Amino acid sequence: MSYDLIATARRLAKSSPKRPRQSDLKRGVSTAYYALFHALARECADLLVGAGDARRDAAWAQVYRTLEHGVAKNSCKTTAARGFPTGIVSFADTFVVLQEERHRADYDPIARFVRAEVLVLIDNCEQAIKDLRSAPRQDRKAFAVWVLFQKKR
User: Fold this and answer.
1) Within-domain flag for 109
2) Which of 53, 54, 116, 146 has the largest count of CB atoms under 10 Å?
3) Which tens digits make up the pLDDT trace of 60-73?
4) Which CATH number fits the domain that encloses residue 108?
5) In a domain, 53, yes or no
6) Which segments in the chain show pLDDT lower than 70?
7) Cα separation of the two ends of the chain
8) What are the backbone angles phi and psi of residue 50, rounded to the nearest 5°?
9) What's residue 54's pLDDT?
10) According to the model, what pLDDT value does residue 57 have?
């Protein structure tokens, strides 16, 4: 699903050959963030419950739905200080930036975006997902626990 969302975000950002509508650019930013969010939710569920034939669907869905935007963002802000490897820190940093940009896109009526910056955000999102998935399994599992089970701040 994450790569489908990235493709959708790109399509929105490139929707007009000349000057894209702000609504398309803003929706592209928001969609890119959700690609990251769903990649993380899936990673958490796959690592903690299992993937493929080994998974229990109800438990997998419960873990997937447990990820909270604010808790994940706060946890991501402190990922580097917790000693996670570079790929996970890169993902976490991008998660924080994209969530802030999504809030600006979705809730700030005077925010304006340009196609080039939106495309960079989308590229960063795609790279962050690759960085997360290339990190060692034990580190990804520890990160999943970190973003799911932190106290709300």
Assistant:
1) yes
2) 146
3) 889 889 899 999 99
4) 1.20.120
5) yes
6) 54, 151-153
7) 29
8) 125, 160
9) 67
10) 85
Query: What pLDDT score does 2 carry?
Result: 83
Its domain, for residue 62, covers: 2-148
> Are 1 and 42 within 8 A, CB to CB?
yes
pLDDT, position 41? 96
The total of structural domains in the chain comes to: 1
What is the dihedral sign for C-alpha 42, 43, 47, 50? positive
Is residue 116 within 8 Å of 14, Cβ to Cβ? no
Tens-place pLDDT, residues 119-128: 999 999 999 9
What tokens appear for 49 in the block? 């419950």
| Torsion angle of C-alpha atoms 136, 89, 99, 146, degrees rounded to 10 | 60
The reply to whether 153 falls in a domain is no
- Residue 134 CA to residue 149 CA, distance in Å, equals 23
Q: Please give the single-letter amino acid code of residue 139.
A: D
Closest among 3, 78, 94 to 42, alpha carbons compared: 3
